[in-house]
């Protein structure tokens, strides 16, 4: 029996507690379904649990998985944990300890105590690919050529970002939060340190990700998205570390084993995360291996 299955067998008390049926008629169910349909992650998670354990609803593990995915994609820790539980115990999905551990890790980083307890026994495995349902959704927009003229106005920038972000498996809302703080949506912005364009690429970063003309808005956004995709993989989806590294470089994060004590970087992280509140995101594990710092953190978590 695999480690997570042994843990599942040892925690019958937990699953029994969440499967207590609600007395019929359930007046709360209608409101719960409406809230879930409107994207409330807490409602989605509660409704998923009802489908999973047949609480005043027909048992439907596929529907439960879909709802857990929707809430987990928004960064809701309880949904991340519950989705991991499905994979740990093959409830409507193939059993996969690597996916389960990755999801438990996502929840534990947000303070989910039970997820952290499970990780003492089965730590995350570098290179695990999360379920596709957690990746950003493609956004249909009009085609824009790489020779775009300068953009004017926030709506034009948003259209460009929503078109390009899915190609890099980056949430466009994260990129737009960075653009808001970096350049205030000015594609011609140039900083005193020669950071250029919407995503304020310095020459070294532009060259690193193949950007030839940093003030071309399409090239600039592609370069910034490529860097975000790399950082998300390197820091295993930890948004605060990704944002701090975008400002200060990944070397500074490694040096201080977290957000460096630079006033500029700390203010930057505060501003970006005030706009973009998701704490942890899916990432493409094939882009780059995890930072040694992240591996140390995962192993040493109490």
List the helices and strands and how they pair.
Layout: H1 3-10, H2 12-18, H3 27-37, H4 41-53, H5 61-73, H6 77-89, H7 97-108, H8 113-119, H9 154-164, H10 172-183, H11 203-208, H12 217-234, H13 239-248, H14 250-256, H15 263-275, H16 292-300
Plain-language structure description:
- The protein is mostly helical.
- It folds into two domains: 129 residues, Tetratricopeptide repeat domain (Serine Threonine Protein Phosphatase 5, Tetratricopeptide repeat); 147 residues, Lysozyme, CATH 1.10.530.10.
- Helix content is 56%, strand content 0%.
- The protein is built from 16 helices and no strands.
- Helix 5 runs antiparallel to helix 6 and helix 13 crosses helix 14.
- It is globular and about 60 Å long.
CATH topology tier name of the largest domain: Lysozyme
Q: Estimate the global geometry from the Cα principal axes.
A: globular
Count of folded domains:
2
**End-to-end distance:** 24 Å
Regarding quaternary structure, what we see is single chain
Which architecture name of the largest domain does CATH use?
Orthogonal Bundle
Strand content: under 5%
What would you call the structural class? mainly alpha
Total DSSP helices: 16
Secondary structure: number of strands: 0
Uncertain spans: 9-25, 139-147, 298-302
* Element pattern in H and E: HHHHHHHHHHHHHHHH
Q: What is the average of the pLDDT values?
A: 83
For the sheet with most strands, the description reads: none
Instruction: Please report the first level of CATH classification, the CATH class of the largest domain.
Output: Mainly Alpha
Proportion in helices: 55-70%
Task: Tell me the Rg in angstroms.
Answer: 21 Å
């Amino acid at each position: 029996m695999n480690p997570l299955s042994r843990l599942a067998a040892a925690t019958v008390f937990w699953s029994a507690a969440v499967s207590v049926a609600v007395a019929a008629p359930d007046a709360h169910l209608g409101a719960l379904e409406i809230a879930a349909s409107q994207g409330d992650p807490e409602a989605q998670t509660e409704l998923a649990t009802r489908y999973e354990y047949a609480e005043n609803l027909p048992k439907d593990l596929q529907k439960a998985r879909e709802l857990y995915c929707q809430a987990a994609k928004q960064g809701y820790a309880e949904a991340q944990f519950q989705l991991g539980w499905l994979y740990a115990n093959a409830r409507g999905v193939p059993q996969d300890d690597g996916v389960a551990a990755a999801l438990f890790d996502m929840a534990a980083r947000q303070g989910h105590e039970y997820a952290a307890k499970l990780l003492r026994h089965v730590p995350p495995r570098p290179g695990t690919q999360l379920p596709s349902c957690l990746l950003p959704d493609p956004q249909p927009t009009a085609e824009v050529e790489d020779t775009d003229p300068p953009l004017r106005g926030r709506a034009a920038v948003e259209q460009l970002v929503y078109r390009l972000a899915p190609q890099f498996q980056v949430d466009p809302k994260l990129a737009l939060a960075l653009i808001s703080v970096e350049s205030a949506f000015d594609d011609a912005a140039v900083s005193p340190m020669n950071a250029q364009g919407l995503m304020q690429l310095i020459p070294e970063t532009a060259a690193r990700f193949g950007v030839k003309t940093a003030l071309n808005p399409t090239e600039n956004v592609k370069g910034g998205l490529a860097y975000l995709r790399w950082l998300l993989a390197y820091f295993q989806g930890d948004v605060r570390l990704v944002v701090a590294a975008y400002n200060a470089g990944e070397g500074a994060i490694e040096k201080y084993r977290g957000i460096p004590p630079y006033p500029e970087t700390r203010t930057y992280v505060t501003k970006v995360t005030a706009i973009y509140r998701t704490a942890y995101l899916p990432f493409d594990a094939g882009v780059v291996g995890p930072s040694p710092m992240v591996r140390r953190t995962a192993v040493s978590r109490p």
